Amino acid sequence: MFSKAFFVAKVLIFTALQISISLNKVELSVGESKFFICTAIGEPVRLEWYNPQGELIMPSKRMSLHTETSRSRLIIYNAIVQDAGIYRCEAADASGHTVEASVVLEIYQRLTFRDVQSPQEFRHGEMAEVVCDVISSPVPTVVWYYQDREITEEHHSKFRVLANNNLQIQQVTKVDEGVYRCEASVEARGEIDFVDIAVVVNVPPVLSVFQQSFNSTADYQESVTFTCITSGSPDPMVTWHRKGQQLEPSEQYMFNRMEGGRSMLTIRNIRQADGGTYTCRATNKAGLEERELFLKVFVQPHIIQLKNVTAVEGSAAMISCVAEGEPLPDISWRRASDGQAFVDGVKSQDGRFEVRGRHGKSVLTISGVKLSDLGRFDCEALSRIGGHQKSMFLDIEYIPKFLTNYTIYYSWEENPVNISCYVMSNPPATMLWRRERFTISAEGTFNTRVHSAEGKSVLEVTPMSDRDFGRYNCTARNNIGVRYQEFILAQADVPSNPYSVRLSAVSQRLATVTFMKPDSHGGVPISYYLVQYKEVGSLDWRDAKSHSVQTTVVLTGLEPNTTYEVRIAAVNGKGQGEFSRTESFQTLPIREPSPPAVHGQRGMGKAYRLGLIKQDDGGMPIVEYIVKYKTDKEEQWMTKLVPGANDFAMLQPLQWNTRYEVEITARNVKGLSEPTFYQFFMPQKPDITAESLFSGLGLGAVVGLGLGALLLLLVLVDISCFFLRHCGLLMCITRTLCSKKTTTSGKGKDMEEGKAAYLKLPLKEENGKESLKPDTIEIKVHSDNSIHTKLDDIKE
Asked: What is the mean pLDDT of residues 235-249?
């Protein structure tokens, strides 16, 4: 959107003073700059500009004023939408007469493409939507182009411009891949712009091989390398297979993947059994393709001499490869890093590589050796019956190179600091430290120590005075050359004071303090921030520390309705910096609590669990919750008091199939909160069936109930045997007890007097539960061992 403003230029003419502005109507886009010239005719003593808010314009970074006797120029840099409006130029003469002229500045939004991605990828055959997000004011007109032709929605066209200005391509193919232009224009301003978007179509792998058939010689500890060249989008993953099994890296099989889609399988120590067909398989998310390669094993050329070579950067390197075989093979070279081949008699494109050979010997000469030449080179000897390939490693020696970018360190007196010097070199460099013109020994001094490792030397310095601060020199030397790097040890200071201290979320007992970090950390990282606060009028400051270097600290344990002062200081390894400006704040007074939040949950049976969520407690703990509840058809409320520490209230017993209304109020020592109202509905009484009883039980519970029922059945059978046949476990127990009592004189006497021993067994109710009522079978055992039974109060 752009801001519109309509200008009215008016000139007020007095007897001797006139004023005018150079431009009448001005339109600017966001970010542009413009100037206006106000000219006065007469003898003005004052010439001033006023902004759309009627305020006198003062020079700033975005608005500049250049005023002369009768001429003033106003410059607006990098216009923004808020700059739109009426600007006035006012002139006054010595008699106090004033005249003015005004102009209206209009700001609009230029065409802008927002985060348009390029390239945009799609899968072969899918419905593609190319995104072009463009804005302007007014809304732009968008046209798409492909191959310099406008895309129109012709009959049966696969292109379609959507309502959101995106381009839809139906069943996208590789033919549709390319650069599409999204062109947006605003006819009212004649403004036009475009963005080119590359469309990439992912396609199935395409696989080819340099050589499909290979020959090799058995029992010569030789190796053969198969090479597959793959293409596709995205890059395919290559695997190698033989006899239906995927090959894995081992002592015999070595895999290598190079640039240009080249994948290699090297078979080492070839034996006759290694002959046969090998499959190179390329897969990506768009498809799969395979190629077969054949290895024929027999006597083949053999490379007998190929050694690793070490060269100095910038010098020349000569690599010799000698091969034998029948017939005598031709020798070629290949660089492993990029697969570039070098052949006899042909120089490389940069002129640095040249091959010369004859009679089974080939020499690869590299002029002006670079570090990028370091790596493996392959020598390949070929004849019409096969080939042999060996590799060597070209090592590059070079002068030491420093890897350290951080060269300024900070510390303070008696605080040790490690100055680290990192070096890359071949061969490894010898490193030492110098201070001014003196060398620091490896054993160090009373306040310096040197710690060395390959490619690294650390100077530990413990400054004792100002003399220990300054420049230190790290020297690295090998047989190629010597290099120096200078480090500076500067004196650290305590941090400056934090600023912009703000208080937020102030309650009765909590307050959150936020502040801006200091402008200077003193050269060493800040450890934490110290926040001090106290009551106004008190002399005792209380301390609170920030968590690490966070600039927000919560003060706790405050007193309600109390004014506090707070200040902050930063602390680093050197010490504590100055405090910020002291700020004051007042905690809130104690008040009644806020209404509690409520959520409900069905309880067991005729109960309902009412969850209580404490809100703002008003500065004092909640003493209790007053819960009132009733049915929607009753007038009388039932009341339940719940301790303030509880987070729920259990309402019971309740009525089935009934709606309840609840009113909950929180109370602290100050008073009661506003009530919270809640309703819930108790369902109908559930039907108890075998399915409902066992549906909620696990397997263990069901097995336990089954064993209990089986035990109960055994008890009932034993009782039946006791009464009907005078046998069973109960009969054995009874006879044992009676025989023991008859052998005891005191107890036998009681039996003779007709006193009976009683054994009462519980009956079973219809639902299988044990009854705790006095409905029992009474068994009397008399002195003659006769047993009489009777049922007491058995209910039909």
From this structure: 93
Count of residues in the chain: 796
pLDDT tens figures, 517-575: 999 998 889 999 999 999 999 999 999 999 989 999 999 989 999 999 999 999 998 89
Pairing label, strands 71-76, 63-67: antiparallel
Q: State the average pLDDT over residues 242-254.
A: 93
DSSP letter string, 349-364: TTS-EEEEEETTEEEE
Residues 614 and 673: beta-carbon distance below 8 Å: no
According to the model, what pLDDT value does residue 188 have? 83
Beta strand 542-545 with 71-76 is: unpaired
CA 195 → CA 183, 199, 564, distances in Å?
7, 13, 59
Q: How far is CA 268 from CA 323, 659, 742, in A?
A: 18, 85, 101
* Alpha-carbon gap, residue 230 to 206, rounded angstroms: 6
Count CB-CB contacts under 10 A for residue 265.
21
Of 566, 565, 562, residue with least CA distance to 553: 566
- Check residue 133 and report its DSSP letter: -
On the question of pLDDT at 155 being above 80, the answer is no
Compute CA distances 92 → 39, 41, 42, 283, 725, whole Å: 12, 11, 10, 84, 136
Whole-number Å distance between alpha carbons of 426 and 88? 73
Can you list the alpha helix ranges (DSSP code H) found in 198-321?
Answer: none
Assess whether pLDDT exceeds 50 at residue 587. yes
Joined together, the tokens standing for residue 751 give 């039996």
